[in-house]
Amino acid sequence: MTSSRSGNRGLFSRGPEGSISSHMMRCLEFWPAVLTMLLGSVASVGSFTVARHFAEEESAKEFRVECDTFAVRIQQRFEMYAGVLQNAAGLFAASNHVDRQEWCDYAEYVDPIHRFPGMFGIAFVERVEHEDLDDFVADAHADGVDDFEIRQPINSDLQNPDGPHYIIKYHEPDLINHDALGLDLATRSANRRTYDLAMESGDVCLSEGLELVQDKEQRKGLVLAHPVYHNGEPVSTVAERRASLYGWVAVPIGIRQLIQSDATYDSDMLSIDLREENSGVYELLYESPSEYEADGNGLRRSIHFTFAGRKLQLLMKPASADVFATDLTLAYTLLVTGSVISLTLSLLTGVLVHSRAQATSDSQRVQRENRSVRVALEEHTLFSISDRHGKIIDVNPGFCQISGYSREELIGQDDSMLNSGIHPSEFWAEMWETIASGRPWRAEVCNRAKDGSLYWVDSTIVPYIGKDGKPEKYVSIRIDITAKKAAERDIAALRTALDEHSIMSIADAQGRIIDVNTGFCKVSGYSREELIGQDHKVLNSRRHRREFWVNMWKTVASGRAW
């Protein structure tokens, strides 16, 4: 009985003191393996987290680039529409009267439907006093538009019995815009505000969202308008512009046609909303037909821009869950690989307790693997390590190759031996202030090689903080960007050469100078300040007849080179 009871006490029996010590020693033998497993797991999870972060950043960067590209294209489209209107206004500036056939010819040349996606056409809106309304309609009938009559647009909300009337006189191409002829836009407040603002400002104005007669589905669109004044009359003040107004050239813009056009955006990666600001609140103008709803952490981007007096907002998100999806292949590979390595090292550490010889063999194998990894790293990076005083204590072959110095020539030397003299002392003072405070520093740096040649690197310096909380050494990682900097210099030289060897000016639709280059000032004898805002007539030599300049204006106003 005594023997049986004694045998059933098992592992937790108090037993002899030597038995307890033996079990404790066996447990303690495995703590290095357990610690290795824990550290390896932490490293694997850390590697996974970092790799996932970089993958998410890459996806976010790709998304931002796609959004920015689309936003630029939308703004370029609006600028192109404004250019069409400025040319059309120039057509009136070159002639006292533009008849229906001339307008039709101009619209046919511009070809707005095919060359400018989103435009429904191009119109001329004339301001007509109420007492002239019957004569205006009679002139339209005599001009061949038998069904021309004064009508009110969709959602008219103003009474305008006494005028003046803002009537669409011409609208090409007629096939899709005939129903717009005769509309009195002064009876709809959204239109009237736009045309009045354009009249008073003398510049292009963009309307708020409104329904267009050309869109049979009655979706919201926009109208861009540019004022036309009677030739020769003063337009310096608001009062003068009101008195001199002849009418407006305008283009109706279908927002869906603009955004979905391949010429504007030839990808289906984004779901796009366009909104306009009204009284501090952004209201929806267009919404992409997408059923995908990004979660709370999904990619979204909002870009605000102002065009022709109208504040607009683009809201963009991925069109589906598949586009801009984060590629976690590398992150999971690191996690699995790290876990496998951790487990392997843990088992090797356990085996080390029982077989020192086998552990030594395993350690040598691991060291060989580490050396292979280091060799691969050194072949593809430029790095150096300096002590807290800036003395070089380690470099890799890539650093030696690009600098022209051997490792022996570099070790113990100050980093300043590579100073090209290109950067001012403040540049280096800011670097030392940054890294001495424990923060990483990054900049593009020009260094001088041993043979005197210059080379550029994208340099990142990371402080290694010691136990005292101060930087103990600095690790510098570099990328050779010499070719990139050379390309930038070539582009700058080309721009300088163009400015030095050409004579160039830019004028608005009324012929007022808005920009000149150095060559223009040099040959004309005027300074830039004397020329800006002046009419080109200031340079008129009086050697050319008036017909010479009239022909010139007609040519450029039609969109052709002269």
What this model shows, in words?
About 45% of the residues lie in helices and about 20% in strands. The protein is built from 19 helices and 17 strands. Strands 1, 2, 3, 4, 5 and 6 form a 6-stranded antiparallel beta sheet that branches. The protein has a 5-stranded antiparallel beta sheet with strand order 12-11-15-14-13, with helices on both faces. It starts with a helix and ends in a 5-residue tail after the last helix. Residues about 1-20 have low confidence and may be disordered.
Principal-axes shape call: elongated
Biggest beta-sheet profile: 6 strands, antiparallel
Helix content: 40-55%
* Percent of residues in beta strands: 15-25%
Number of distinct beta strands? 17
Structural class by SSE content: alpha+beta
**Count of runs of 4 or more consecutive helical residues:** 19
Contiguous runs where pLDDT drops below 50 for at least 5 residues: 1-18
Q: Span between N and C termini?
A: 122 Å
Round the mean pLDDT to the nearest integer and report it: 84
Rg over CA atoms: 38 Å
